[in-house]
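Please complete every field before forwarding. Incomplete forms are returned to the sender.

SECTION A: IDENTIFIERS
Entry label: holo-281
Bound molecule: 2-oxoglutaric acid
Molecule representation: SMILES string

SECTION B: INPUTS
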Amino acid sequence: MDFIRLEPEQKQAFDRDGFLIVPRALEPQDVDRLIAEGDRLAEPFVKKPHLVDRPEYNHLDLRPGLLRLKAFFALVAHSTTVSLVVQLLGPNIHLHSTALIYKRPENPDAEPFRRGWHRDIRIARDLGHAGLPLVGVKVCYCLTDFLQPDCGMTLMARGSHLKTEPLAIPRGEVDPPDIEICDPKMNAGDALLFENRIFHTAAPNLSERVSKVVIYGYAYRWMKPEVYIDVPDVEYWEKADPISRQLLGGYRDVDTPPWALREWANRHNVSTNYVPWTVEV
Ligand SMILES: O=C(O)CCC(=O)C(=O)O
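SECTION C: PREDICTED COMPLEX
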């Protein structure tokens, strides 16, 4: 994996907003391959008739099967994004989730569908909203342009990663009134990095095209990956570099150091915030 520096202003934006846009994270040919393979994987959805008044029928959130496809496997240690994730979380991480999300155009007069503000990984359900730790970063790769409002992107409540309480939403409404809701404007190939604590939700797709994204979540190795993460294809696994192997759970034991990314971080002078068990006093 090549080293791409996380610039100080990118780090500041991520710490302040809870998310960061990385323009041109994918080359146009990567986007084309991901769409071709994604459309094949999603064929039953792609071929279904479009029923404009059945929003639940028009959303696909497909989790298993992605890592069996070559272009999707190649994203596991993608330099332009994962390099930044390592600088945000440190080297002790693995791939935690994969999702291919397609949204067909919706009826603008229908009730909002899948508007469900949440924080990721469900930690707050057990630990509460105060003092939540940063433990994961998702990378959302745009496969289509997202240049209009409400065209199927994921909405971000800017700065809400620092909230110590649930989001307050007035009865009968769908959004919080007192926080900036950001509907990022992105081109195909751009990536949106967002952290586990930020409140986010699906936006409706009021455009005239199907919106398409791939989302890969990275988290510390002591966090169990989603069950949908596949055992990768043997052929890809055998050819995979040590960093991809680490990210795919190659070190089964959490006590085994994250050798591959630790070595990568040392080689590129990435500070790794080593916390000792004990200190001399
Ligand atoms: O479908 C979407 O845009 C929302 C995705 C989401 O909520 C998630 O990845 O946690």
